[in-house]
Amino acid sequence: MDQSEINVESLPIVQIGHPVLRTCARSLTLAEIHSPEIQQLIYQMKTTMHQAPGVGLAAPQVGLPVQLIVIEDKQDYFTQLTEKEIRERDRRPIPFHVLINPKLIVDDKDKQVEFYEGCLSMKGFTGEVSRALTVTVEALNEKGEPITIHASGWYARILQHEVDHLHGILCVDHTKPKTLTTLENYKNFHRSP
Ligand code: ZN
Questions:
Q1: What would you report as the CA-atom Rg of the chain, rounded to the nearest whole angstrom?
Q2: pTM of the predicted model, to two decimals?
Q3: Which of 60, 83, 88, 139 is the most core-located residue (most Cβ within 10 A)?
């Protein structure tokens, strides 16, 4: 489809409490993946993620319970982090990509790391979440081709967070309750100097 025909307006991001965030998303067929509707949705989700801005967005977050995720992490997004924070998080730029019908496997359940984590559907809040250090994800890309991803560090965290969205799980479900904080108070009291 010609770019000018695509509606690239960003979509509203639904917030915690909306039932769509608690439903199990259904998988997409190859015919659906190739359809103009899903191709347009991918484009709209990319725009929505960029405008938010966020490093990942799952279709239920724009009100659609289908197994579709977009991810992109940019250097620009972690300029506010110190060298030490970047190193601890093992955070690197991740190019834009699409995951459809993903299956996530935790490589080693014993290797977990804890960091504060936020969500575009829990605007203004963050809390400490323990996540596996490395994961493997098998999925389809936007063309319906099978892909396998071996990820570690912050990228592995993004993948776990986004795949959870497809199963009706939010990061607050994993958050240690007493660490839940507004972003403002995170910056004031919890961010290591
Ligand atoms: Zn989220």
A1: 16
A2: 0.94
A3: 60
